[in-house]
Design brief:
The protein is an all-alpha fold. It contains 3 helices and no strands.
């Protein structure tokens, strides 16, 4: 179900990113997310990035790249 919803969000965010830009934290990746959901969430975050949320998104990306992958 999450996969289908995220696919729809990716499609909508590509056309109207402002619809989701204030809800960026909803797309943060959880440790329990399978890879296919994580990839979609990353795509959404890149689509909805703007000057108001870019620091939050970049901070989250930094966390993803520096954490242990255990």
């Amino acid at each position: 179900v999450q996969y289908v919803v995220l696919c729809a969000i990716v499609s909508m965010a590509a056309k109207r990113p402002s619809m989701f830009s204030q809800h960026v934290s909803e797309f943060f990746i959880r440790g329990t997310d399978p890879a296919y959901l994580a990839i979609l969430k990353l795509e959404v975050m890149t689509l909805i990035a703007n000057s108001g949320n870019i620091h939050t998104i970049l901070g989250e990306f930094n966390y993803y790249t520096t954490r242990d992958n255990k």
